Amino acid sequence: MNGWILAAAVVLGGGVGATVWGVATGPLRRRVVAQNLCTAFACPALLLLSQGYDRPSYVDLALVLALLGPVGTLVFARLLADELAADPPSAWGLTYAAAAVGAVVVPALCVATGPSRAMAKLLVVGALLIGGNLLASRALSGAFPEVRRG
Amino acid sequence: MNARTTLLASAELLGWWAALAVLWLVFISTVDTLELAVGAGVACLGALAARAARRAVTGR
User: Fold this and answer.
1) Which residues of chain B lie closer than 8 angstroms to A120, CB-CB?
2) Is the pLDDT of residue B2 over 80?
3) Contact call for residues A133 and A40 (beta carbons, < 8 A)
4) 3-state class of A142 per DSSP?
5) Mutate which of A58, A60, A67, A121 to disrupt the B interface (most B C-beta within 10 Å)?
6) Which residues in chain A (80-99) have CB-CB distances under 8 A to chain B?
7) For A91-138, how does the pLDDT look when each residue is reduced to its tens digit (9 = 90+)?
8) CA B32 and chain centroid, separation
């Protein structure tokens, strides 16, 4: 057990645990927000585990999650557009909290890694994670109304 | 397709290819000749697909 694994346990338990609870209970608008935030917490947790166990291949999992998580949310936003149109879910506090977790974890790992190709990969993962999260949250809150047509 | 549009298309493909090849270079774990060759080839396919997708979205 080292600090990285402890941090990963906190992010997994606090973040992913809370989002799984949010996905499993409550109204639809809470569930879509929770499933969107689920990958935003799981991705930093995988990055921390990668550092804690010294297994660089875990970063690939985080990369795939950072890419596909927001894409999955966009699919939900498109398919549930009618249900969410009357009362679009906006949880900007939680969204920025998830983005802040990523924004703390990625620079910390970059410092631990040192300047190298691995650090560039971490930065790409971090940009995808935070950018995708913000974009998916905007889509859920109804910022792209033209999507509803067609 | 005249000389100007050909030049623009080649420049766009080259831009996509360079960006995708750099991305491949960042993502691989060990850099050797085979990885670089595969990366260059896949970046070619990716550049063609990216330009086709961009044209499909913008309708030009």
Assistant:
1) 26
2) yes
3) yes
4) coil
5) A121
6) none
7) 888 899 999 999 999 999 999 988 888 999 999 999 999 999 999 999
8) 20
- Closest residue of B to A56, CA-based? B29
Q: Can you read off the two tokens belonging to residue A84?
A: 């969410």
CB-CB neighbors (< 8 A) of B23 in chain A: 124
Query: What pTM was computed for the model?
Result: 0.86
User: Cα(A115)–Cα(A109) distance, rounded to whole angstroms?
Assistant: 11
- The single-letter code of the amino acid at A150 is G
Token readout for A9 is 């346990």
Q: Among A54, A48, A50, which Cα is nearest to A9's?
A: A48
Per-window interface: B 14-43 vs A, CB < 8 A: 23, 25-27, 29, 31
Please write the tens of the pLDDT for every residue from A12-59.
999 999 999 999 998 888 999 999 999 999 999 999 999 999 998 999
Digit-coded pLDDT (tens) for B11-56: 999 999 999 999 999 998 888 999 999 999 999 999 999 999 999 9
Contact state of A124 with B23 under an 8 Å Cβ cutoff: yes
Q: Kindly state whether A55 is in contact with chain B, defined as any CB-CB distance less than 8 angstroms.
A: no
Provide φ and ψ at A89, rounded to 5°. -75, 130
Structure tokens at A107: 């620079």
- pLDDT exceeds cutoff 90 at A61: yes
Nearest CA in chain B to A61: B27
